[in-house]
Specification:
The complex is a heterodimer of chains A (about 260) and B (about 60). Chain A is an alpha/beta fold and about 260 residues long. Chain A contains 6 helices and 7 strands, in the order ααββαββαβααββ. Chain A has a single domain, classed as 3-Layer(aba) Sandwich (Rossmann fold). In chain A, strands 3-2-1-4-5-7-6 form a 7-stranded mixed β-sheet, sandwiched between helices. Chain A starts with about 45 loop residues before the first helix and ends in a 14-residue tail after the last strand. The N terminus of chain A is likely disordered. Chain B has a single domain, classed as Single Sheet (N-terminal domain of TfIIb), CATH 2.20.25. In chain B, a hairpin with a 4-residue loop joins strand 1 and strand 2. The termini of chain B are far apart. Classes of the chains: A alpha/beta (about 260), B mainly beta (about 60). Strand 3 of chain A pairs parallel with strand 4 of chain B, so a sheet runs across the interface.
Chain lengths: ~260, ~60
């Protein structure tokens, strides 16, 4: 991945190129002797990973203007929905796609907040925002498809306006379920494909444009994806295309099916 | 005592390649997998836990 952070990296060591590294086919790193997995191994280019890199580059480019660009959506209800949903956050919190840190001010009495994002520049803004607000947040550059956390580490996992642009939403939602404790909560605020037949078709058409210009899909079936990821929906609030979803891990559930990743 | 990361963070993290536990290395600032040996850079206190940023073999000064 070409990282395009705007800060200089004068002390960065001359790492060997990750692209030059390719483990042998029988390497445990590729799952040969390691845990059984149907996920692609490291270094393997998939359409999803290529798309995810494009998303990263896009968010790096737009980071400095993101809050301005997103302001109308905030004023039209997104901010209110964030506050309402995040009032359910408890204990240790993982936020996936923390972006510029817009949610940080909404966390009340939580013990810890870890925020991840794939964009260096978005994280830099989140770091500044957290410092200005006096909010403690541990920030990591990481991908929702492969969370760098052990199982059952968080009481609450959060993603707001993320699964419209994640390349493989079911895989990422499974990851959220993995790192969330069995008695924890997964809080999602997402816009989804309209259920009205005609509006749904229009969202499909619009997605061809929104994907290219803004990197998100207007036709994600996030409720269905949550179920396909083996999570259980404890509560959902529906307002137009918006969904405030409170899900819980359901580790014994079937994980078959789910949305295609290319819609 | 963690020197690179906030207290308690590395204890809940794992290698995204093999799920192994991680240890800090100060020079160059990085997290190294105890099992498979890959390293992850730490820049401005932020660990870069991305597959494409993985440093094979740890990328240590002694290599």
């Amino acid at each position: 991945m070409t990282r395009s952070g705007n800060r200089p990296l004068p002390n960065r060591p001359a790492w060997p190129s990750p692209l030059a590294w390719c483990p042998p086919e029988d390497s445990p790193l590729l799952g040969g002797a390691g845990p059984a997995s149907d996920e692609p191994g490291p270094g393997v280019r998939t359409p999803e990973s290529v798309e995810q890199q494009a998303v990263t580059r896009r968010y790096d480019r737009m980071a400095s203007l993101y809050d301005v660009y997103d302001a109308p959506m905030e004023l039209m209800g997104t901010r209110r929905r964030r506050g309402r949903l995040l009032s359910h956050a408890r204990g240790s919190v993982l936020e996936v796609g923390v972006g510029t840190g817009r949610n940080l001010e909404h966390y009340g009495e939580v013990s810890r907040v870890c925020g991840i994002d794939v964009s260096t520049r978005m994280l830099a803004r989140a770091k500044r925002r957290a410092a200005q607000a006096g909010v403690g947040a541990d920030l990591l550059e990481a991908d929702a498809h492969a969370l760098p956390f052990a199982d059952d580490e968080f009481d609450t996992s959060v993603a707001t306006c993320v699964f419209c642009s994640v390349a493989d939403p079911v895989r990422a939602l499974r990851e959220l379920g993995r790192v969330t404790r069995a008695d924890g909560r997964i809080l999602l605020l997402e816009h989804v494909r309209p259920r009205h037949r005609l509006l749904g078709r229009l969202a499909d058409i619009a997605t061809a444009v929104t994907r290219r210009l803004f990197g998100f899909r207007a036709n994600r079936r996030t409720e269905e994806n949550v179920l396909a990821a083996g999570l259980e929906i404890a509560d959902v609030r529906r307002e137009g295309v918006w969904r405030e979803i409170i899900a819980v891990p359901q580790r014994c559930a079937s994980t078959d099916g789910g949305e295609d990743t290319g819609s | 005592m963690s020197e690179l990361l906030p207290e308690g963070l590395i204890e809940i993290m794992q290698c995204i390649i093999c799920t192994g536990s991680l240890s800090e290395r100060l020079e160059p600032p990085s997290l190294v997998c105890d099992d498979c040996g890959v390293a992850y850079p730490v820049e401005d206190g932020i660990p870069i836990m991305l597959e494409d940023e993985v440093i094979p073999g740890g990328g240590g000064l002694d290599e």
